[in-house]
Design goal:
elongated; mainly alpha; about 180 residues; 8 helices
Length: about 180
């Protein structure tokens, strides 16, 4: 690497891998949700009920509620768990991608927040509708709390990887974006 290339990299800061950071952020978010629902299920004395129910739904079992309580509970939980982590990994990559772009264009942060609010509202409403039939006693507020925990954990990680962001955004906003 030439001296001028090295100095320009140092001026920008260390390189960040969108994929790596996104996979870690998504994994942390997925873990937060999984632990939240494990706690909810253990308190209800039905360990792994939620991932088993979602696994039964994904496999299109005729009666997912009964299937999630039956002898195949572990199989359905094992079916859903990788799907859960893959979806969060994809979401994590999107979050980190937007964070990297928002460093140069702070208005993208507002877009990301609006998209998140629309997605969260739509997803929570969808869960509330499904709760009437397919999801049984899985409450919309439990999903909302799980998603909030995921967002907090993911935001903490991404912010930790980018401690320079507040100063960058402040300077860019003063200049006019």
């Amino acid at each position: 690497m030439t001296a001028s290339a090295r100095s320009s990299v140092q001026a920008i800061g260390p390189a960040h891998s969108t994929i790596r950071e996104g996979l870690i952020a998504g994994g942390l978010g997925a873990l937060a949700v999984a632990l939240w629902f494990l706690l909810v299920d253990v308190i209800a004395r039905r360990a792994l009920h939620t991932p088993a129910l979602l696994g039964a739904l994904v496999s299109r079992t005729p009666d997912p509620i009964a299937a999630s309580e039956g002898p195949n509970r572990l199989m359905f939980a094992a079916l859903y768990t990788p799907i859960h982590f893959i979806l969060f990994a994809l979401f994590g990559v999107l979050v980190v991608f937007l964070m990297h772009r928002a460093k140069k264009r702070p208005s993208l942060l507002m877009l990301a927040l609006v998209l998140f609010a629309v997605f969260e509202g739509g997803f929570t409403g969808f869960v509330a509708l499904l709760a009437q039939t397919a999801l049984g006693d899985l409450a919309w507020y439990q999903v909302a709390i799980g998603n909030l925990l995921a967002v907090i954990v993911m935001a903490w990680y991404v912010w930790r990887c980018h401690p320079d962001v507040p100063a960058i955004w402040s300077r860019r906003m003063d200049v006019g974006g």
